[in-house]
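Issue 218. Parser rejects a valid record. Input:
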Amino acid sequence: MQELYARRSKGRPEALAEKVYQTIKNDIFDFRLMPGDRFSESEMAERMDVSRTPVRQALFWLEREGYVEVWFRSGWQVRQFDFEYFEELYDLRIVLECEAVRRLCAMPAGRASDLLSELKRFWMDDLRLQDGKAVSLHDEAFHMAIVAAAGNSEMAHIHAELTEKIRIIRRLDFTREDRIEATYNEHARILQAVSQQQSEEAQLILTAHISVSKAEVRKITLHRLQQARLQPDSPT
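Output the parser choked on:
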């Protein structure tokens, strides 16, 4: 890995900063860097065997996304989890996605079904993925596609930004087999209701689907944080 960093640092500083960014972000997502952990740019640069410049750039990107915050004269800190903030984002998801479903159901007969045909082939197939990370990516794509299909680009843009903000906890919803199974079943029911232009039914299923996910990821996140705190070592 050090050789890779060295090669990139010679001619592609942006690529090196991107690599540092992804590494730190993964450490945060996997709780190797815990909420509240503090570190300096020099410490991070030494650990990754790079200069401080790409580390600083990566940290500013992460700050804009809300994962870290700068403490002047004392380095950086991983932001504490604010579950109220995340739950508000989940509530906003419900508003945006229910509106998207309402618009899809109001389209001429068969139009919404055609727009969502690829989603139906994946989520209504008898062959189901079991890998949580893969299902998580497909889940994000499903919900983003629902909003995009409604035809409002600004709504889709806001939804995409929201999706990025909740990814740190949302992906944990796919660490259990029962949650993966529930996701397949509920997505199939949403798609079926939309295809049949059953707007109220589709919105009810979607609202329940997101609400349960919101509650589950809170429980799973708290459990993962507790487990991580029992680990003796940290990356810094």
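Fixed in the parser; the record now loads. The CA atoms of residues 88 and 214 lie 10 Å apart.
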